[in-house]
Amino acid sequence: MIAFDRDAVDRVSAASSGARYHNSVPDVDSIRKFCLSFADATENMQWGEDLCFKVYGKIFAVVDLSKGKLAPISFKCTTEKFQELLEIEGIAPAPYVGRYKWVLLERASVLMSANLEDLIRQSYELVLAKTPARARKTARKTVPAKRRRAKR
After folding, report:
1. Which domains are delineated in the chain?
2. What is the pLDDT of residues 82-116, one digit of tens each?
3. Are the C-beta atoms of 66 and 46 separated by less than 8 Å?
4. What angle do CA 84, 89, 95 make, to 5 degrees?
5. What does pTM read for this prediction?
6. How many Cα atoms occupy the beta-carbon half-sphere of 143 within 13 Å?
7. According to the 3-state scheme, what is the secondary structure of the chain?
C-alpha cells in the first residue's frame, strides 16, 4: 500500500493553481485587509452586521459578519462573469441587487483567495468607473493635504 501526505498534495495543487498556500481560503480579516488596500476605499457597518467596503461612497463589496470567519460576501461583477459564477455551487444572485449583477458567495471559502481577490478588484474597478468625476473631486477635497515641515 502506498502512503501519501494529503497536506503535501494540497500544497502542490494550490501552488500549481497559482493560489498562495498559506492563504488559500480567504477569511474576514484577509478580505478586509485586501479591500482597504485600494485607493480611497473605506469601510463602515451598515444594515446590522454587514461590513460594507466603499469607494467614494459607493459600495463595491459587503461581508456579513454575523456568520463568522468564513462569512458570506457580495460583490458586483460583469455580465459574463455573473453567468459564469452562478454555475458554481455556493454562489447565487445577491438579494435585492442580483439584477445589477451582484453575486453572493454563501461562504468566503467557496473560491480560492486569489480568485476572490481578482473578483473583488474587478468589483472595485466597476464601481469606481461608474462614480461621477464630481464625486471624486469632492471626496479628494475633504482629505487633508500633507503638512509641510516648517523651516527653522
Report:
1. 22-139 (3.90.1150.30)
2. 999 999 999 999 988 888 899 999 987 888 888 99
3. no
4. 80
5. 0.70
6. 12
7. CCCCCHHHHHHHHHHHCCCCHHHCCCCHHHHHHHHCCCCCEEEEEECCCEEEEEECCEEEEEEEHHHCCCCCEEEECCHHHHHHHHCCCCEEECCCCHHHCEEEECCHHHCCHHHHHHHHHHHHHHHHHHCCHHHHHHHHHHCCCCCCCCCC
C-alpha cell at 58: 459607493
Place of cell 471559502: 109
Residue type for position 39: A
Please, which residues bridge with residue 52 across strands? 44, 62
